[in-house]
Design goal:
The complex is a heterodimer of chains A (118) and B (644). Chain A is an all-alpha fold. In chain A, 69% of the residues lie in helices and 0% in strands. Chain A has 2 domains: 54 residues; 30 residues. In chain A, helix 1 packs antiparallel against helix 2. Chain B has a single domain, classed as Cytochrome C Oxidase, Chain A, CATH 1.20.210.10. Chain B is built from 20 helices and 2 strands. Chain B has a two-stranded antiparallel ribbon with strand order 1-2. In chain B, helix 12 packs parallel to helix 15. Chain B is globular, with a radius of gyration of 25 Å. The chains are: A mainly alpha (118), B mainly alpha (644). Chains A and B meet through helix 3 and helix 4 of A and helix 8, helix 9 and helix 11 of B. The structure holds protoporphyrin IX containing FE and copper (II) ion. Chain A: It catalyses: 2 a quinol + O2 = 2 a quinone + 2 H2O.
């Protein structure tokens, strides 16, 4: 009665391993490398974009043609971008209008950390 | 670590809790062994992938959580009734308002609604199960273990005490050392996996598995509300996941995202939390709107007025819900421009909500209303919710909010929307769909008693809180001033009234199980939508056959055309998924890893994570494609269910 379809999901395994490797790379970039901060940020961004590509092509059937491109989740991708924009722009907007982040002045810092210690 | 650091010691109430946990657990184990039900439990429930059974497990757990959160609430109300009460000390009070809020929102309201969606949505759209039944089981167990992990905190390790909003820097490692806050982080993270997966699962199910001919704008309104909700879940929950992960890394591995020292930004937590948190409140109210719409249309015996307007207003609410989060921290010190922008966007939400209120009223207008219990919950919802909504708009005015914020005025507001909206909807939906789930109705007379106790108790409890809030009583205080006493006493009386209502509700489940007339047909309320077309009890494959759907209220036209979901001519073997123990095992291992992480036992946590990965690997190479139900068997099942 039950029929079995055996086939090893090669794409998924490669995608999974690649995702792990890329994540470890990002961790190393942030913690282990001695790159300047700007480069760390750029590197992490680049790795993230590659990750997203892997997700879309190796897991989300982007390239399957069975339904004439119907597998490309345009709608969700569009909303994903809108939401990312809201999060980033919205956070900048709310967090930088009216707040003062005085991380620059050294005296402040010292005071804070000496509080921590006693 | 010493044993007396592991267990919470020194509190009589908590010793009582421990004793009752031990007693209840041993009673359950004894009963299962005595009645030889272990095998049954494992085969029929723990390993099931049937959306109806998973839904029932969600609802049972949610009722248990409602009980737990309710006991928390009553303890708070006792402490707040009189000045100088010594029932709870300040630490214990902090822990209780934290667990109360978290349990009610994350482990009661959402699972209750998800449970109803689980059972009803596939039936409403003519599907045989979820798109991903295995994932559905994983979701349930992740919620279940997340809830257990969170709840165990009050006897092991100590409960979180920084509020359900867990604001940093208070919730950070410096000011809240120990496992308490980690329980919050890991419990929510674990349950969040399930919520996100359910959102995806429901969305795919609704988009891809509708009955032949059912167009989007033919879908029952509860299914529409579920679709919109799953959209919000998919876009809001990742924000929570990231925020929780960052705070976890802060607390356990010493990073500085939300700390006061280093380059941390404590306010970023509030920002991220409410970017999820505000959509979250719509996640728990939109399904409630859907439930009320179904019930009102059924018992007003009319088509829902303004169906399209209802759908579009939900979509609009969903979109706006991502644009208002700052109204939760108007007083945090952002400038006038920021506050004004979010003040306006907040007030805008009242517009689509108002549209819905008027549509319900128009549906009721000149109809012949049947006063069933489910309908009474729905009718009571409308005015009660309006009070909550109007005061919400008051809170939305940034300048005025400087007065209202963190006072009991706010507490009254969100209980008016959450209880009159979500909780009433859970009760109404459970009563309404009960015959479909269990094959008999809940007793109407007892149901109405429980309704009146709960409704009156609710208003007596929370209406005075608006005024005591305006008198200056802040939230999250464990002692009141004498001048606030009269209103607080009234409030406490009301809270116990709600408690009585809840007890009667649960008693009604037992009473009806014993004495209610069993349903013979599937159509208990002369319904309009497809779920009522199935026989009761619903066969595990739901629909033997389905007619071509054209138009809304599909079952209404089926009844007119004498069609059923059992057309012997068109029977074909049905493909069903097999039961599996993998989801519960996988999530139990992940729960173990989370528990280890709560106590910062990194080695054990890694072992648990590896175990989870192994389980995922096993699943990836699992080639069980399910089985087929043969035509003869379908005939047998349908004939006996339909008394043919
Ligand atoms: C018997 C019914 C209930 C009573 C008597 C009750 C009472 C209370 C009280 C007294 C507080 C204030 C604690 C404080 O800040 O000092 C509170 C907070 C809260 N309640 Fe309820 N409640 C009830 C039901 C519910 C339900 C059904 C929900 C959700 C669906 C809910 C969600 C919350 C939330 C989110 C908070 C805020 C917790 C916090 O700020 O940390 N409550 N409740
Ligand atoms: Cu809000």
């Amino acid at each position: 009665m039950s029929k079995n379809t055996k086939h090893v999901p090669v794409q998924h395994i490669i995608g999974f391993l690649l995702s792990i490797v890329l994540t470890l790379l990002a961790v190393w970039a942030a913690l282990g490398s001695n790159l300047p901060v700007a480069w760390i940020i750029i590197a992490i961004m680049a790795l993230a974009i590659i990750q997203a590509g892997i997700q879309l092509f190796m897991f989300m059937h982007m390239t399957e043609s069975s339904s004439g491109g119907g597998h490309v989740p345009w709608n969700m991708m569009f909303h994903g971008f809108v939401l990312a924009a809201i999060i980033v722009a919205g956070s900048l907007f709310t967090m930088s209008f009216g707040f003062h982040h005085d991380h620059g002045s050294h005296t402040d810092h010292q005071e804070e950390s000496s509080h921590q210690h006693d | 670590m010493q044993l007396d650091e592991f267990f919470v010691t020194g509190e009589p109430l908590i010793y009582g809790g421990m004793v009752s946990i031990v007693l209840v657990t041993s009673a359950i184990i004894f009963l299962l062994t005595y009645l030889k039900r272990w095998g049954w439990l494992w085969r029929e429930w723990l390993t099931t992938v049937d959306h109806k059974k998973i839904g029932i497990m969600y609802i049972l757990s949610a009722l248990a959580m409602l009980f737990r959160g309710g006991v928390d609430a009553l303890m708070m109300r006792v402490q707040l009734a009189f000045p100088n009460m010594n029932f709870l000390n300040s630490q214990h009070y902090n822990e209780i308002f934290t667990t109360h809020g978290t349990v009610m929102i994350i482990f009661m309201a959402m699972p209750f609604l998800v449970g109803l969606m689980n059972i009803i949505v596939p039936l409403q759209i003519g599907a045989r199960d979820f798109a991903f039944p295995f994932v559905n089981a994983v979701s349930f167990w992740s919620f279940f273990f997340g809830a257990m992990l969170f709840n165990i905190s009050f006897v092991i390790g100590g409960s979180p005490d920084a509020g359900w909003t867990s604001y940093t820097p208070l919730a950070g490692a410096a000011l809240s050392p120990g496992p308490g806050q980690n329980f919050y982080l890991m419990g929510l993270q674990l349950a969040g996996i399930g919520t996100l997966a359910t959102g995806i699962n429901l969305m795919v199910t609704i988009l891809k598995m509708r009955a032949p001919g059912m167009k989007m704008f033919d879908m029952p309104i509860f299914t529409w509300s579920t679709l919109v909700t799953s959209f919000i879940i998919i876009f809001a929950f990742p924000i929570l996941t990231v925020a929780l992960a960052l705070l976890t890394i802060d607390r356990i591995f010493g990073s500085q995202f939300f700390t006061l020292t280093g380059e941390g930004m404590p306010m970023m937590w509030a920002n991220l939390f409410w970017m999820w948190g505000h959509p979250e409140v719509y996640i728990v109210i939109l399904p409630a709107f859907g439930i009320f719409s179904e019930i009102i249309a059924t018992f007003a015996r009319k088509q829902l007025f303004g169906y399209k307007a209802m759908v579009w207003s939900m979509i609009l609410i969903a979109g706006l819900s991502f644009l208002v989060w700052v109204h939760h921290f108007f007083t945090m010190g952002a400038g006038a421009l920021v506050n004004s922008v979010f003040s306006v966007s907040t007030m805008l939400i009242a517009v689509p909500t108002g549209v819905k209120i008027f549509n319900w009223l128009a549906t009721l207008y000149k109809s012949r209303i049947q006063m069933t219990t489910a309908m009474m919950w729905s009718l009571a919802f409308i005015p009660s919710f309006v009070i909550g909504g109007v005061t919400g708009v008051m809170l939305g005015m940034a300048a005025a909010d400087y007065q209202f914020h963190n006072s009991y005025f706010l507490i009254a507001h969100f209980h008016y929307v959450l209880i009159a909206g979500t909780v009433f909807a859970c009760f109404a939906g459970l009563v309404y769909w009960y015959p479909k789930m269990f094959g008999h109705k809940l007793n109407e007379r007892i149901g109405k008693h429980s309704f009146w106790w709960f409704l009156i108790g609710f208003h007596v409890c929370f209406f005075p809180q608006y005024f005591v809030g305006l008198d200056g009583m802040p939230r999250r205080v464990f002692a009141i001033l004498p001048e606030w006493m009269p209103l607080n006493v009234i409030s406490t009386v009301g809270a116990f009234g709600m408690g009585v209502g809840f007890v009667i509700f649960v008693y009604n489940i037992y009473y009806s199980y014993r004495y209610s007339k069993r349903e013979e047909k599937g159509d208990a309320w002369d319904g309009r939508t497809l779920e009522w077309a199935t026989p009761t009890p619903v066969p595990f494959y739901n629909f033997a056959t389905l007619p071509e759907i054209n138009g809304r209220d599909a079952f209404l036209s089926m009844k007119k055309n004498n069609e059923t979901t059992f057309d012997e001519e068109r029977l074909e073997p049905i493909h069903m998924p097999s039961n599996t123990g993998q989801p519960i095992i996988m999530m139990a291992i992940l729960a173990f890893a989370s528990f280890a992480l709560v106590f910062e036992w990194i080695g054990l946590a890694v072992i648990g994570l590896i175990g989870t990965l192994i389980m995922m690997g096993i699943r990836s190479f699992d080639y069980d494609d399910g089985y087929h139900v043969e035509v003869d068997e379908i005939k047998k099942i349908e004939r006996s269910a339909r008394g043919l």
